[in-house]
Amino acid sequence: MLPLILVSNSEKEIKRFIDDYSKENNFSKDRTTEISPLKKEIVISQIREIRKKIGISSALPRLFVLYNFDRATLEAQNAFLKSLEDGALKNQFILNVGNEHLLLNTVRSRSTVIRLQNKKVPDKSEEKQSTLLKKIESTAGYSFITEAALKNSTPEETVKLIEIIVKYYRNKLAVEPNASEIIKKALSFRALLIGNNLNSQLTYENLLIFIYKAFRMKI
């Protein structure tokens, strides 16, 4: 069974979809496993628990629902791919995400994406980040550092800015040779911010400087 990537930030829509899907496909509660992030992330130990359950023989297919899977560490996402190899034939996986662009390409390519039609408020942060990134790509000098100054930004707010950068370069993968390396670096900084007490401003600046250098030298 192909995994389903369920894109939505609406808890009501997500619950309605999963309830309807379970009824239509006869997934009882005792054959359904739900996983949510531990604190802020889905970690590899949670994926290992799934693999243990997959290893137990079952006459009927099972449903595994992973909420906020876009908060999974890269290590956990890679481990999930291994779980697919071991148990995709007899098990159904639903990955709920708010931002599908934070998933590994290999996860997305092996799944069916379902985008629930929740109303989306235009995000001014995305427009501002897009303008800043275009300036970094095309303008010499480090004047963008001043423009990128964060005022009392929390790590959570900085993580959202980094996620916008990831989305921006995901959309440019086909035309921008540096996009893949920039995405890897951005996801690395994002993981460090989530898991450690780092300075938000310095982390954000270091990522922007990396992007600036990526367009002027080989990385």
Automatic annotation (TrEMBL):
UniProt-recorded name of the protein: DNA polymerase III delta N-terminal domain-containing protein
Organism listed in the record: Candidatus Roizmanbacteria bacterium RIFCSPLOWO2_01_FULL_35_13
